[in-house]
Input
Amino acid sequence: MKLYHSPSSPYVRKVMVLLIETGLDAKVEKVPAPGGVSPVAANAEVQKKNPLAKIPALMTNDGDTLFDSPVICEYIDHLASGKFFPAPGPKRWTALRRQAVGDGILDAALLVRYEATLRPEDKRWSDWDKGQWQKVEASLGDIEREVATFGETFDIGTITLACALGYLDFRFTDRNWRAKAPKTAAWFDKLSERPSLKATKPA
Amino acid sequence: MKLYHSPSSPYVRKVMVLLIETGLDAKVEKVPAPGGVSPVAANAEVQKKNPLAKIPALMTNDGDTLFDSPVICEYIDHLASGKFFPAPGPKRWTALRRQAVGDGILDAALLVRYEATLRPEDKRWSDWDKGQWQKVEASLGDIEREVATFGETFDIGTITLACALGYLDFRFTDRNWRAKAPKTAAWFDKLSERPSLKATKPA
Output
């Protein structure tokens, strides 16, 4: 298998954590997405496999390409007979909802980042930045209220939340999410000691 | 169960098609999202249930709220012992990949729409519009190459593609996707005769 990869993509990080946790990491060749991926200049090589021109994209041994990260993660978990996607039932719906929160934080944070770094300065719109960041903050508030119930749960839901928080640390240090969600920060710091998270921390 | 709903949301439409197809429609109360949802002015009522302030959001009888549309659709399919999410295996990965293409078309098309209708005119950036629309067109190209293999397949993958194409008809008539993907248009027009799609067509 081959994975279009970038060490700074939080969605790729989800897949990498799954690969390491399931022991499948060595079976997947990492292909650097040449020049990265930009929403205003599609990466032609990636787009041959994923018309949305986004990473991660996983080329399976059957010649198919899978995306986006929830699909790839479920596929890997299935290959490994893993337990990161619980069987249908309350645990699965909770894990998938948490994955949606984590991916939603990332989608909003990425839009904030594109607004601030990609868009020409005179075309930036502060209401857009505020609206997207407000989704991030509301999500952090929900996580902070829920985090005491996480216990030792380590599945696609908590993995995605961890990758989202790691991305906020990586790209939005100045917004200091930790001050607003101290219990979440403590949970995240403990989880970050896992080898799979250490090995994939963006630098 | 209660569903935050808007008749013009293509992601809500996916859920509605599933509800009608599985016979669960009558068991779900539709709650209009008051004032709709805007990425620059979060809907406070929706956000109490979904911190991302997006619809659809499904409040289950257990008191949980599920989102986003892939999670809600899988939950409904499970409740109904449906077959719209195939069991793990090639059919499932194909269906989920197609769902990702359809949702990806919608994500890109929505960003184009926000750029053109929500953002102040002097802050619009044509490269953003072009980059997002190019994802839509590349996806249409992939669908056009694949559509002859769809046959009678009607699962979460083809349902999502249909909702995406319906949204392009609804909001982007002027971009005339049908001219570029005539085989896809023929497939879509035939599928659109199903009662579940007729009943949910945005007006």
